[in-house]
């Protein structure tokens, strides 16, 4: 696996678990607001052996391992890594953009995942403008999660391009019982060209939008 980073201890990335986070290099999207842009192309890589040695050492002290990115589903040996850390006694979580439903299906069928967090970026027809790629696979991944037996969540970063009307359109595709989190967008250097005078949402505005959407999807929350 091409590993671009390792967070050795996290209390917020895996619900109910103390976890390490393994960041896979590379992504097939180019979201202008990505907070991990440094690992999307050709970042310095960590030694696989050293990362696994750390996880071996922390087995029994940490509860889980999160595979994040970038997009970890692009890594051909992701199933092997999941199996190896589960053999150490860890619970596993996948952070994904949902663009590789065939990988997600295989991991679910092999029972290699305990939790999935999927980024639901925008209405499907808006992906090219926001993500630099189409939404192929996203709807299928939503269906797979809806029909799975493991807990999952959907996450949407509220860039100002996502109006209330677009969020309502997105809500129509969200499974009725899904946990859907609306996340604060934090502008980063270089984002200005994409905002074109738009003003980022405040935490209060996001909470108001979540309250509005709860009329049709009860498990929407601001984060």
Termini Cα gap: 30 Å
Mind telling me which CATH architecture this is? Answer: Alpha-Beta Barrel
The average pLDDT is 96
Relevant CATH superfamily? Aldolase class I
Number of domains: 1
Q: What's the arrangement of strands in the largest beta sheet?
A: 1-2-3-4-5-6-7-8
By DSSP, the count of extended strands is: 8
Can you tell me the CATH topology?
TIM Barrel
Overall CATH class: Alpha Beta
Give the helix tally.
Answer: 8
Tell me the fraction of residues in β-strands, as a range.
15-25%
The profile of the biggest β sheet is: 8 strands, mixed
Spatial shape: globular
Point out poorly predicted stretches. none
Helix content: 25-40%
Q: What class, by secondary structure content?
A: alpha/beta
What value does the Rg take, in angstroms? Answer: 17 Å
Order of helices and strands: EEHEHEHEHHEHEHHE
Descriptive report:
The protein is α/β, with parallel strands linked by helices. The protein has a single domain (3-159), classed as Aldolase class I (TIM Barrel). The protein contains 8 helices and 8 strands, in the order ββαβαβαβααβαβααβ. An 8-stranded mixed sheet has the order 1-2-3-4-5-6-7-8. The mean pLDDT is 96.
Keywords summarizing the entry:
alpha/beta, 8 helices, eight-stranded mixed beta sheet, globular, 223 residues, TIM Barrel, single chain
Please sum up the structure shown.
The chain has 223 residues and is of the alpha/beta class. The protein has eight helices and eight strands; from the N terminus they run E-E-H-E-H-E-H-E-H-H-E-H-E-H-H-E.
């Amino acid at each position: 696996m091409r590993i671009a980073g390792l967070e050795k201890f996290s209390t917020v990335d895996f619900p109910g678990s103390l976890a390490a986070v393994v960041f896979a290099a590379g992504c097939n999207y180019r979201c202008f607001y990505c907070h991990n842009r440094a690992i999307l192309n050709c970042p310095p890589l960590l030694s696989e052996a050293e990362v696994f040695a750390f996880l071996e050492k922390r087995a029994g002290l940490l509860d889980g391992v999160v595979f994040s990115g970038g997009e970890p589903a692009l890594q051909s040996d992701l199933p092997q890594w999941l199996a190896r850390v589960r053999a150490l006694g860890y619970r596993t979580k996948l952070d994904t953009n949902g663009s590789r439903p065939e990988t997600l299906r295989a991991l679910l069928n092999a029972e290699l995942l305990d939790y999935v967090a999927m980024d639901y970026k925008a209405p499907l027809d808006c992906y090219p403008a926001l993500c630099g790629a189409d939404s192929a696979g996203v709807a299928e991944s939503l269906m797979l999660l809806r029909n799975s037996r493991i807990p999952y969540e959907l996450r949407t970063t509220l860039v100002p391009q996502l109006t209330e009307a677009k969020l309502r359109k997105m809500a129509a595709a969200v499974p009725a019982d899904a946990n859907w989190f609306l996340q604060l967008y934090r502008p980063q250097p270089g984002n200005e060209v994409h905002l074109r005078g738009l003003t980022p949402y405040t935490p209060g505005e996001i909470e108001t939008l979540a309250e509005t959407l709860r009329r049709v999807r009860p498990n929407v929350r601001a984060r």
